[in-house]
């Protein structure tokens, strides 16, 4: 009697289904040939290219590793490094990892019962506050935080320099002086009475450097939508030039209040969201952008987004722009808005990139993260805090942000037509190309070509 547990094979192939399993016969005994982890890694290295200053066209990672048999000693920073450069590195290290530091602080505060007296009210506020998505960033916007001297160190690290090719009419202009006497020489000044006596103590905090008469401002000019290109790994130049005063934005464009827009995911971290809002950074959504513009603030959008970030590599200018027309439609639906294209020379040179192809498992992981969470980043590395060989701190590469001439949309269009959107989109691309080709030689990118990948 034959056993009912007998397994049948046809043509030497198992009827069982699996991934990465092949079968064969040795002396009528089936054999499973399972791909080893080492073979998976070996195949993966063939589908990953390293883009660096030495390999701008990209070189398979397995070849790079094969040629680096003689390992060099780690290249550490000199102990004689000037303190100013150390502070610059510290400022960049803070920006790159700030969300990690603040998230760790929030978790520790929640785990410590002593901090619950602060954390419980804050978490209630965190649950009900919608400032990142309803335009209330204009109320949380802090010129003082944006003007901290700390951001000067951040911009001087690369350095980040803002260049304008045309003047922009201010959105806000002075109305009338509120008083002829100078304002208080202190930012905070108050008295505390010593009860039950008639005496009081006066406290003066944060002395002002400018005591000119206070002026009331009114919105008289257009709002602006700045389009930033390319995205690079983390839009480092956009943060320095438009989210801080480290590159002297308000001096170059007085009367314009700027809000940089980023993904909503970043506002899900306690305390980090408030840090971003104080810098004028808010969520990139149509509803939120419209409300910010209605409050007479200007916005900066990194148009290429996560898709363009995946294509970033040293020396490239690959843009995702041809099909990105939402910001054009937003300008038409708002009215009295000017479109200002910006190109950042050097944005893509701050990190070495590990670029994956379609056959790579890492590529599939990146696309899955993008589909699931709405964002993704390339695999990258640069230098460390105390070494120059490996880490997540960007290289010291100049980033020159060039802003173009404004493309003014005067009338408000409730339902803009496709022809109207295409018209302004064409004007925008023409101005972007003008500032790119007229400035690339000036900043050492005469061989760089502008390429629209989508």
Automatic annotation (TrEMBL):
GO molecular function, one term: diacylglycerol O-acyltransferase activity
Keywords: Acyltransferase, Endoplasmic reticulum, Glycerol metabolism, Lipid biosynthesis, Lipid metabolism, Membrane, Transferase, Transmembrane, Transmembrane helix
Pathway: Glycerolipid metabolism; triacylglycerol biosynthesis; Lipid metabolism
Function: Catalyzes the terminal and only committed step in triacylglycerol synthesis by using diacylglycerol and fatty acyl CoA as substrates.
Reaction(s) catalysed (UniProt annotation): an acyl-CoA + a 1,2-diacyl-sn-glycerol = a triacyl-sn-glycerol + CoA
Source organism, top-level taxon: Eukaryota
Family from the record: Belongs to the diacylglycerol acyltransferase family.
GO annotation, cellular component aspect: endoplasmic reticulum membrane
EC number annotated for this UniProt entry: 2.3.1.20
Designated name of the protein: Diacylglycerol O-acyltransferase
PANTHER family from the UniProt entry: ACYLTRANSFERASE, DIACYLGLYCEROL O-ACYLTRANSFERASE
Gene Ontology terms describing biological process: glycerol metabolic process; triglyceride biosynthetic process
Protein location: Endoplasmic reticulum membrane
């Amino acid at each position: 009697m034959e056993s009912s547990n007998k397994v049948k094979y046809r043509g030497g192939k198992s009827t069982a289904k699996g991934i990465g399993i092949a079968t064969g016969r040795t002396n009528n005994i089936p054999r499973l040939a399972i791909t080893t982890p080492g073979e998976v890694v070996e195949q993966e290295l063939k589908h990953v290219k390293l883009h660096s200053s030495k390999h701008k066209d990209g070189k398979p990672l397995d070849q790079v590793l094969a040629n680096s048999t003689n390992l060099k000693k780690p290249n550490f920073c000199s102990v004689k490094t000037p303190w100013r450069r150390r502070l610059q590195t510290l400022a960049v290290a803070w920006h790159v990892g700030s969300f990690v530091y603040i998230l760790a602080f929030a978790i520790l505060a929640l785990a410590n019962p002593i901090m619950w007296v602060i954390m419980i009210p804050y978490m209630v506020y965190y649950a009900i506050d919608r400032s990142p998505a309803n335009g209330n960033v204009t109320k949380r916007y802090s010129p003082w935080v944006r003007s901290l001297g700390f951001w000067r160190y951040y911009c001087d690290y690369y350095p980040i320099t803002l260049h304008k090719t045309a003047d922009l009419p201010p959105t806000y202009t002075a109305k009338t002086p509120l008083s002829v006497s100078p304002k208080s020489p202190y930012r905070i000044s108050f008295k505390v009475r010593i009860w039950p006596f008639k005496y009081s103590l006066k406290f003066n905090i944060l002395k002002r450097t400018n005591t000119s008469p206070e002026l009331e401002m009114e919105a008289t000019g257009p709002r602006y939508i700045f389009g930033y290109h390319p995205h690079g790994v983390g839009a480092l130049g956009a943060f320095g030039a438009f989210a801080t005063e480290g590159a002297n934005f308000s001096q170059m464009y007085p009367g314009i209040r700027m809000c940089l827009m980023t993904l909503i995911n970043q506002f899900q971290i306690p305390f980090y969201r408030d840090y971003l809002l104080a810098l004028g950074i808010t969520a990139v959504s149509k509803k939120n952008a419209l409300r910010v513009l209605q409050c007479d603030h200007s916005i900066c959008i990194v148009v290429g987004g996560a898709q363009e970030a995946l294509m970033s590599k040293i020396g490239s200018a690959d843009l995702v722009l041809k099909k990105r027309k939402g910001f054009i439609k937003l300008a038409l639906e708002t009215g009295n808005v000017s479109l200002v294209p910006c190109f950042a020379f050097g944005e893509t040179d701050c990190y070495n990139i590990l670029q994956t192809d379609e056959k790579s498992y890492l590529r599939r992981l990146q696309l899955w993260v993008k589909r699931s969470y709405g964002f993704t980043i390339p695999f990258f590395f640069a230098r460390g805090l105390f070494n120059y060989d490996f880490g997540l701190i960007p290289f010291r590469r100049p980033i020159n942000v060039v802003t173009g001439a404004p493309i003014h949309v005067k009338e408000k269009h409730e339902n803009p037509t496709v022809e109207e959107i295409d018209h302004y989109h064409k004007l925008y691309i023409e101005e972007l190309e003008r500032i790119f080709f007229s400035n690339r030689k000036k900043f050492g990118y005469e061989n760089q070509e502008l390429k629209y990948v989508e």
